[in-house]
Amino acid sequence: MSEYFKNIATSASTIATGMGITLKHFLNAFNRKGDAGIDDVDYFRQVDGLVTLQYPREAVPTPLRGRYRLHNAIDDCIGCGQCVRACPVNCIEIETIKVMPEDLAACGKTSGGQQKKFWVPVFDIDTAKCMTCGMCTNVCPTECLVHTPVSDFSEFDRQNLLYHFGNLSRIEADAKRRKATEAQAKAQAEKERKAAEAKAAQAEGPAGEQ
Ligand code: SF4
Ligand code: SF4
After folding, report:
1. Is 60 exceeded by the pLDDT of residue 195?
2. Which is more confidently placed, 166 or 61?
3. Which residue's CA is the nearest one to ligand 1's atom 2?
4. Which of 102, 148, 154, 167 is the most buried (most CB within 10 A)?
5. Could you tell me if the CB of 142 is within 6 A of ligand 2?
6. What CA–CA distance (Å, rounded) separates 109 from 88?
7. Does residue 203 or residue 126 have the better pLDDT?
8. Quick one: where's region Disordered (predicted)?
9. If you measure from the C-alpha of residue 55 to the centroid of ligand 1, how many angstroms do you get, rounded to a whole number?
10. What's the rounded Cα separation, in Å, for the pair 124 and 43?
């Protein structure tokens, strides 16, 4: 009989201990892990405090040097294409149009003072493919292509993950393409005319000497 009451006492004591631990964690959940957030070196060492956040209303801040969603400050992009060549998954698509000499002033300079020599009508990043490796940002000579702290950019429609940074309207791009094509054709015609003249002069040369 005494064994019977002993077991009841042990059960009651065990339940009380367990409930005490639960209550302690429950009360601790009203605390926060400090104001500094994840950038606080002690953030993950603190055992007390709220573990689960009310996401998406609250979120753990992203680390300072984290690599997240890309952004291209396109006005500083010189259209060099180094990022495209560096990307291991080919998720950057770029189209450039050579700037005509008379349009250099209109095309402008980067914030670092470098003259831009290409229009960039298309600069698309397929962020659904991007693995945020950072190879493209590392090679960008003007540092216009950067990772932002934005880590949550999920979409229902995959097409919305294709980001467009090009800075020309379709009409503007068409006009500049046409102008560049005409200038190229003119330069080619001039080259051919000069080659033909040189050939004719060469053909006349030996005849004139005879
Ligand atoms: S971060 Fe990596 S995968 Fe993403 S665009 Fe840049 S090079 Fe490509
Ligand atoms: S590497 Fe930088 S400057 Fe060159 S095309 Fe890419 S984003 Fe533009």
Report:
1. yes
2. 166
3. 133
4. 167
5. yes
6. 29
7. 126
8. 176-210
9. 27
10. 37
CA of 132 to the centre of ligand 1 (A): 5
Nearest to 86 by CA among 147, 143, 137: 137
The average confidence (pLDDT) of the chain is 88
Residues 48-78 pLDDT 10s: 666 666 777 777 777 778 899 999 999 999 9
Across the beta sheet with 92-98, the strand order is 92-98, 118-126, 162-164
Give the DSSP H/E element, type plus range, for residue 139: helix 135-139
Token output for 165: 């940074």
Contacts of 1 (CB under 8 A, 6+ apart): none
Q: Which of 137, 140, 147 to mutate to test the pocket of ligand 2 (most atoms within 8 A of CB)?
A: 140
Pocket test for ligand 2, best of 70, 72, 75, 82 (most atoms within 8 A of CB): 82
